[in-house]
Specification:
This protein has 18 helices and 22 strands. It has about 500 residues and is of the alpha/beta class. Strands 7-6-16-17-18-15-19 form a 7-stranded mixed sheet. A 5-stranded parallel sheet has the order 9-2-1-13-20. The radius of gyration is 23 Å and the shape is globular.
């Protein structure tokens, strides 16, 4: 093992990817994971009486060749090819998503459809210049009428705030490249893309998926890390990080379930922990300005109510977005459509009803029994199951699932980033919560892969913040994929010349 040990905070996609890449090169790595049982973070697979279910839904599709190859390397024989199917529930009707022009016109009716088209044309002729919030950005792309029908209710459920309070960055990241025109053209005429880089993620038809859920991949990754000499400590909560500037070493303090305190000495720390939590635990302490910026970062939490039901094949979508203000549920997953092996009994199915909330609010603090009763009633309200068909259920809570993109989040992140980079040169932020970037697991993996390359090179060859939401590292707008995940060779660029989407 090399003499510069690395401590990684968190065994999610970013932490495990970094550990895998580093231990492969004989670097001494210790991962500290707060969860006592599961690796994978929000990409874990929860289990209940033989049922497996995905926390949030994870389609395995990336524009990054390196990420796709790494998935295949970690789990070579257990990735299924699955059809992508999603719908929107609005006004007691189900709409295919992405939009199918004929279906949408028929279900909205000719008058409403004409109003939507006119609203879209009005937005294209006179768009809001430099849109600042989600509502302005989406209205520019789709028109005000479609914004109110297909975006407003669901988005406000997800974030618990007005669409006018949500940064336009959120829309630019999650709906990048898609507009009403794109969706209609895609529905009427869909040419085969020349490469994955030409595919808008929102419009993909198929994706890969581990047969026992995403956690299967991360459990396999964890085993490979251990086999390569890495240590994964489960149930360990990091309580402090002290940086000794004299010898450039870290002392990482952590506690276990029984309250025991231990310390790890490291040359580098890779953190996928929530940025706010990390900053609060640093020593020497950050400036009051940076601490205030960290304290102002916000997170959205959510919970999944998994209902075991008699399988009457009510729907075969991977999930359905619920655009109905009369129910609290935001999205409903059909786990059998992700993989039949997630459900152990062919006569049964398992639906996951997702509720977005804040940790400590009324919904979060409701008893499991009350949440299961709520989910049963709301599943019936949207016409997807009769309460008598529900035979069992359980609840999984996920704190800090989504970094909040409010008006000031980017300013706060910039403040924190500037001081951390100046004061703690051997501290590396990766992944969704580590960088306060709401992106997918392929983005988290790419930041970790580049971070590992920086540590192995002994210098900052790559700016991790230059990875966009498609897990592409940009140099004048081009992806630098030159080889597989086993020997990542991306061409470094000067930070000032990089183009980063949605920032």
């Amino acid at each position: 093992m090399r003499s510069e040990p690395v401590v990684i905070i968190g065994a999610g996609p970013a932490g495990l990817t970094a550990a895998y890449m580093l231990t492969k090169q004989n670097v001494s790595v210790t991962i500290l994971e707060a969860d006592p049982h599961y690796v994978g973070g929000i990409s874990r697979t929860a289990r209940y009486k033989g049922f497996h279910f995905d926390i949030g839904g994870h389609r395995f599709f990336s524009k990054s060749q390196e990420v796709e190859e790494l998935w295949s390397e970690i789990l070579p024989n257990d990735m299924l090819d699955r059809p992508r199917s999603s719908r929107i529930y609005y006004n007691n009707r189900f709409f295919s998503y992405p939009l199918k022009a004929g279906e949408a016109l028929r279900k909205l009716g000719p008058i409403e459809a004409a109003r939507c088209v006119l609203s879209y044309l009005r937005a294209r002729v006179k768009p809001t210049p430099q849109p600042r919030n989600f509502e302005e950005w989406v209205t520019n792309q789709f028109g005000a009428r479609l914004f109110n029908i297909f975006f407003k209710t669901y988005t406000e459920k997800v974030w618990g705030m007005s669409c006018q309070e949500i940064s336009a960055d959120w829309a630019a990241q999650r709906i990048k490249g898609l507009s009403l025109q794109t969706a209609i053209l895609n529905a009427l005429w869909k040419p085969k893309p020349k490469s994955k880089g030409e595919v808008i993620k929102t419009l993909i038809d198929t994706f890969r998926y581990p047969r026992l859920g995403p956690g299967m991949l991360w459990e396999a990754c964890a085993e490979k890390v251990r086999a390569q000499g890495g240590i994964i400590e489960m149930g360990r909560k990091v309580t402090g990080l002290h940086y000794n500037e004299f010898n450039q070493q870290w002392v990482v303090s952590h506690t276990g379930p029984d309250g025991d305190v231990r310390q790890e000495i490291a040359g580098h720390v890779i953190s996928s922990a929530p940025m706010r939590q990390l900053v609060q635990g640093l020593s020497p302490a950050v400036s009051p300005e940076t601490l205030d910026a960290a304290n102002r970062l916000r997170y959205r939490d959510f919970l999944t109510v998994a209902l075991v039901v008699k399988d009457k094949q009510q729907f075969d979508d991977n999930w359905i977005y619920i655009h109905d203000p009369n129910v609290k549920v935001g999205r409903i997953q059909n786990f059998k459509s992700w993989s039949p092996e997630l459900v152990p009994d062919p006569t049964l199915n398992c639906y996951g009803l997702e509720y977005f909330c804040f940790e400590g609010d009324g919904l979060w603090n409701s008893s499991d029994e009350d949440l299961i009763a709520l989910a049963k009633s709301e599943l019936a309200k949207v016409g997807l199951s009769d309460p008598s068909d529900v035979v069992d259920g359980c609840v999984v809570r996920q704190p800090k699932a989504y970094p909040v993109y409010d008006d000031d989040y980017a300013k706060h992140v910039d403040t924190i980033r500037a001081e951390l980079e100046a004061k703690y040169p051997h501290l590396h932020l990766v992944g969704r919560n580590g960088m306060h970037k709401y992106n997918n697991q392929d983005h988290a993996m790419m930041t970790a892969m580049l971070c590992a390359q920086n540590i192995l090179a002994g210098e900052k060859r790559y700016d991790l913040w230059a990875v966009n939401q498609d897990a592409e590292y940009h140099e004048s707008g081009h992806r630098g994929a030159e080889s597989g995940a086993t020997g990542l060779r991306l061409v470094p660029t000067r930070v000032e010349s990089e183009t980063v989407s949605a920032s």
